[in-house]
Amino acid sequence: MGHSKAQKTRTHKRIVSIASKRFREKGLAGFGIAELMKEAGLTVGGFYKHFDSRDDLVAEAVNSAFGGWKRRVDAAKSGGASVSIAKLIDDYLNAAHRDDPGTGCAFSALAPEIARSDKRTRSLTSEQVRNDIQLIATLLPDKDKRTARSRAILTFSAFVGAMSLARAVSDEALSREILKTVAELLKNFAPRHST
Amino acid sequence: MGHSKAQKTRTHKRIVSIASKRFREKGLAGFGIAELMKEAGLTVGGFYKHFDSRDDLVAEAVNSAFGGWKRRVDAAKSGGASVSIAKLIDDYLNAAHRDDPGTGCAFSALAPEIARSDKRTRSLTSEQVRNDIQLIATLLPDKDKRTARSRAILTFSAFVGAMSLARAVSDEALSREILKTVAELLKNFAPRHST
DNA sequence: ATTATCTATAGATCTATAGATAATGC
DNA sequence: ATTATCTATAGATCTATAGATAATGC
Prior knowledge:
195 residues, DNA-binding, 70% helix, mainly alpha, homodimer, 2 domains, Tetracycline Repressor, domain 2
């Protein structure tokens, strides 16, 4: 069987990592614990030594799905590359991201289901929304911090909405039009007056 | 028992109407057929004389959840009231809409789940996205039709994303900030160049 | 001795169907 | 005769738990 403490930690991370991907692909109710454990090479009985309940897994897996941007931006920065807002926009609003929700943004894949989840999941989500607004704001050219924050909130909202809609429609041309149009306008928009 | 043809039509509409509301509140997997039929004052066995399958109900109920804007805009117009884009923005991005998904926009309540639904549901969704983009475009002041369409797509995306995020976070202040900020910027934004 | 994982299963769902019942509508 | 709805249930889930097994780690 094999079960050292180090092994358990690795197993735990593997379960969370798989769940995090599958939740984004199939939704928070998209599969059962047995199916998940099988993909992790385990059986259903072991699950509850890792999590108190299924909701516990949801909270942890959703939270681990967040923060992809920050990791990529940090990686790019430490690699010496400049990280422009235009690059972030193109990195988000494209067909590859649309077609691979499992490794993509958790908000555009799950926001309405998170809204119906328990308090813990929504608290962790609040924290991450705050972080991501902050992250986008630092990439914007606006000198005024409040202006940058406002524009970051609009940018983030447009990201999530455009991706949600682009995935929901079956018409490929319309889907691409949504992604392309929103990317273009976000790169060029300026508020008529700052607030 | 009672079952004239007229009665059946009314029953059918009642089932769809309840499902349409509950899907937006609880998600497409949020309740079973027995629970739904009970709320409609019926029992589970009658369901399949109305729908070939549960997915059939999903397609019909989701579709009936769309078009709320058009109905309201048309009503306002025929009532002689002017329908400005500012009014539409305030009508969408507010806390009352956020707290009552059952009677609100189906996209912000269900987009990611629709993305995982069958072809028929997604086809009907495409149609409605097209209609709503068109509707918003006609309310925008832009003379150039392509500019109006582009701005309508951004506005629509920002609506759906802002509402999805405002519902997903548990922090009330952050939630309100998202709605208010996006509403304000949408009222004032102008593209630096039209495309 | 402790515990990570396994097998097996209880109990509660859920979708869909079969067959009975009672009304409509020819 | 047809059919809208009912009761009852088959068969397939799904979450969570009980108890066995086999490894770790004192």
